[in-house]
Structure formats: C-alpha cells, structure tokens
Amino acid sequence: MIRIFNLFCKLKNIKLSDQEWFDRAIAKLNLSEQVCPYCDSKGQMILHDSYSRYMITLKANHIKTEILQIPRVKCASCGHTHAVLPEILIPYTSYSIRFILTVLKDYFLRTHTVEKICEMYQIAHATLYAFRDLFFSHKKLILGALNDAQKKQSDFIAEIDGQLLFQFWKSFRFSFLQADHASDFHHL
C-alpha cells in the first residue's frame, strides 16, 4: 500500500468534501515520486488497475456512502502491486477519518448520549467503542504517556492535521485510527 499525504492543514479547516479531498489527492498523484514499499525503487510505479471501495462520510451533516475507485500501481522493478490511498482513507475500514473524528468529537464533548450519537451516525455501540479505544491507543502512541494524560481528547481532535497523520504513518508504519492488521474492524 502506498499512502499519499498532501494536505497539511488542520482537518477541521479543510473545506473540501471527503470525495473532493480524495479526487484531488488522486489527481495530484505523481508516480515518478513514489517509492515501492517492497523493493524501495523510486520512480518505477506504473498504473496497473483499480478497484471499488466504499467510503462512509458526512456531507452537509448527512451520512453518505461514496463508491471510490482506488488506483493500483505496479512496480516495474519488482512486479509487486500496491493500492494508493490518500490520508482521508483509513486502511481496512469504510469510514473516512473525518467521519470517525466527528463521531469521537461528539462523544468526548458529551454533546449527546451514546444512544443518540449511535443513532445520528448509524453505527452500533460496539463500533463507537472500537473507535474510542483505537483513538485512545493511537493518541498515547503519538503523544507519549505523559503528554497524553495532559491533553484533552477534544483538543487533540481539533489539532489533528495532515502533518500528524504523516508523522504517525512514518513512525509506526500504519495509519492513525487503522485497527491492528484490520482485525478490529472486520465486524464493522
């Protein structure tokens, strides 16, 4: 998998819809700059194929399911293929990162009951708690135990930007809010 990180402002400041964010990221994709995650060859990627994927997102405060075409590239050097995912997408889940962060923001700010949040976002209680637990775990990873204890969850969500998403990926080799090897989101 090749991750694209190209929007480095705070996520809450991005005025694009998640669909527009995805489309722009794919349109800006420069294959000559991509490095093969398997053999480390640079500039050897060629478009190979694509596949359909769902993205659950919010548009004008309504839940929307978009069908995206995810490009796959092939390394001319080693022959391995890789999906190309912009930072809006979390591997192995259909929910966009902004969808999950919006749900969590409401949860942490206690704007509604858990029951109401689950009803509003059409998710199961178990899904909300899976989001919450993953968030706690990843927040602690990126901030460290001491800073994690001092930073309110809602403040951390407000500060999340593309730089943090990129730094998380670079440091841990999986995406922020990506469940461990997809096992936690198989039931969602």
Describe the structure.
It is a single chain. The protein is of the alpha+beta class. The protein has one domain (2-185). It has helices spanning 18-27, 97-109, 114-121, 125-150, 153-159, 162-172, and strands at residues 2-4, 45-59, 62-75, 81-86. Strands 1-4-3-2 form a 4-stranded mixed β-sheet. Strand 3 and strand 4 (81-86) form a beta hairpin. The radius of gyration is 17 Å and the shape is globular. Residues 182-188 have low confidence and may be disordered.
Strand content: 15-25%
- Across the major sheet, the strand order is 1-4-3-2
Radius of gyration: 17 Å
Could you say how many structural domains there are in total?
1
Tell me the overall shape: globular
Note the run of SSEs as H and E: EHEEEHHHHH
Characterize the biggest β-sheet. 4 strands, mixed
Number of helices: 6
Structural class: alpha+beta
The residue ranges in which pLDDT falls below 50 over 5 or more consecutive positions are 182-188
Mean pLDDT: 90
- In angstroms, what separates the terminal alpha carbons? 22 Å
Helix content: 25-40%
Number of strands: 4
Secondary structure: elements and pairs:
Blueprint: E1 2-4, H1 18-27, E2 45-59, E3 62-75, E4 81-86, H2 97-109, H3 114-121, H4 125-150, H5 153-159, H6 162-172
Parallel strand pairs: 1-4
Antiparallel strand pairs: 2-3, 3-4
